[in-house]
Amino acid sequence: MCPFTHANYLVLGLAVVASFIFGFLWYGPLFGKTWAQLMGIKIGECKPKPWALPLTLLGTVLTTFVLAYILYIYRPYCAYGAAFFIWLGFYVPLLFGSVTWEGRPWKLFALNAAYYFLNLQLITAVLTYWK
After folding, report:
1. Which of 25, 42, 63, 64 is most buried, taking the most CB atoms under 10 A from its CB?
2. 24 and 34 in contact (C-beta within 8 Å)?
3. Tens of pLDDT along 37-94?
4. Nearest Cα to 44, choosing from 55, 32, 53, 59?
5. pLDDT for the residue 73
């Protein structure tokens, strides 16, 4: 395993915050109603579980840390390509499962896939810009 001793934890935290803000905007004012409709959720009737936000935060921290580690290995000259292939090889197949096994609509697949793609690119931008 390659050493990862030069992590800038302030930048990692900034990337997590940027990702959280982007997620709030994406699934809130921008596409919140569309997402809720595609999920079959009536706005105002659904209350998130108390552990939803902490688990989302943990997932964002893990994604950011692992992406930072991968970018440390591959260097910034191919950072956006690395984020693309992470999306293509890991996120897209998982989202296929939501369509094939859970019966979710393809529009929801597209909405979520676009979010994850742009979110990975955003995290990559923060990590590479503020090394």
Report:
1. 64
2. no
3. 999 988 777 788 889 999 999 999 999 999 998 888 777 678 898 899 999 999 999 9
4. 32
5. 78
Nearest C-alpha neighbor of 63 from the set 120, 115, 111, 106: 120
CB under 8 Å to 10, separation ≥6 — which residues? none
From the number of C-beta atoms within 10 Å of its C-beta (0-12, 13-18, 19+), residue 63 rates as buried
Q: For residue 6, name the pLDDT band (cuts at 50, 70, 90).
A: confident
pLDDT at 44: 77
Return all residues near 31 (Cβ < 8 A) that are at least 6 apart.
111, 115
Give the closest residue to 6 by CA, choosing from 75, 72, 96, 74: 72
Q: Buried (b) or exposed (e) across 91-120, using 16+ Cβ within 10 A?
A: beeebeeeeeeeebeeebbebbbebbbebb
Put residue 47 in one of left, alpha, beta given phi > 0 → left and psi -120 to 50 → alpha: beta
